[in-house]
Design brief:
GO terms for molecular function: transmembrane transporter activity. The chain is mostly helical and 294 residues long. The protein is 70% helix and 3% strand. It has one domain: Orthogonal Bundle (ABC transporter involved in vitamin B12 uptake, BtuC). The protein contains eleven helices and two strands; from the N terminus they run ααααββααααααα. Helix 2 packs antiparallel against helix 3, helix 5 packs antiparallel against helix 8 and helix 6 crosses helix 8.
Length: 294
């Protein structure tokens, strides 16, 4: 029983990290069709934002809480700058966006090395996240519970924003039929930028969460970008709830495979399972319904 609970929690914990990394991609890639390979570097920028904030705010607890909104803004601004300067010229050219954003990711990594150095740095976790919490005789790390709660809160905020706010209705209208949305008076250009700001902002929040997992370095984003894309594809393009199911499912499956093998073998086997799944269901868990004539 202890093994079952431990592995399921480890899987949910890993899935929460994947979900935070993939939520932004579910918007920018899933709903706008932009393959943004620099999304991983937005995660890295959020992590270094937490590091910088902690140099200014000495209290680890306060700096963590301050870092979350600041990293959201930093990631969002980076996304808007990328969208306004490069990606706006490349909509409907996914391969071009892939190559350009990959180049941007390399530039951002090098800039980070120049500013912070190549060695990894640590962000001190607050004391109230140290140690375990015992529930029914089982011990769960507080930092992992915090990341799990943060991922669920981010999902609920994004889902509520898309469903109940005017911006969410504009985003859904633009995704379902861009031409009809424009003819209805919706500025699809402004909607695209706000969508990119929100999606990239969630990447910054994911970066802050990752500072609780371990050291951060300029290569932090490359460790999560592929897994984040896999979550979006398995969940279904443009489907936020599909991303949630896929993230936790992949986390639990990988945790169980790692228990009997190694992390490397688990990664390979999970990738093979995803390929097999997409052969049977190429649209992913959920399929996006649009009114587009294309």
């Amino acid at each position: 029983m202890e093994i079952l609970v431990t592995q399921v929690f480890n899987g949910l914990s890993g899935g929460s990290v994947l979900l935070l990394a993939a939520l932004g991609l579910a918007l920018t890639f899933g709903q706008m069709g932009v393959i943004n390979m620099a999304h991983g570097e937005f995660i890295m920028a959020g992590a270094y934002t937490a590091f910088v904030v902690q140099q200014v705010v000495s209290s680890a607890g306060v700096s963590l809480l301050v870092s979350l909104p600041v990293a959201f803004v930093v990631g969002g601004v980076l996304g808007v700058v990328l969208e306004a300067t490069l990606l706006r010229r490349m909509y409907h050219r996914p391969l071009d966006t892939l190559l350009v954003t990959w180049g941007v990711s390399l530039v951002l990594q090098q800039l980070t090395r120049d500013v912070f150095g190549t060695a990894g740095v640590d962000v001190v976790a607050p004391e109230w996240l140290a140690g375990p919490v015992e529930v029914l005789g089982f011990a769960f790390p507080r930092s992992r519970l915090f990341i799990l709660g943060l991922a669920i809160a981010a999902f609920l905020a994004l889902a509520a924003g898309l469903r109940f706010t005017p911006l969410g209705r504009r985003i859904r209208a633009t995704v379902q039929n861009r031409q009809l949305a424009e003819s209805s008076g919706i500025s699809t250009r402004a909607t695209d930028r706000l969508t990119f700001f929100i999606g990239s902002g969630f990447a910054g929040v994911a970066g802050v969460a990752l500072t609780l997992v371990g050291s951060i370095s300029p290569n932090l984003g490359t460790s999560y970008i592929v897994d984040a894309f896999l979550v979006v594809v398995v969940g279904g393009i443009g489907q936020i709830k599909g991303a949630v199911i896929a993230a936790f499912l992949l986390g639990v499956v990988q945790s169980w495979i790692e228990y009997t093998t190694t992390a490397s073998i688990a990664k390979v086997l999970v990738f093979a399972l995803i390929i097999a799944f997409l052969q049977v269901r190429p649209q992913g868990i959920y399929k996006l319904r649009t009114r587009s004539l294309a």
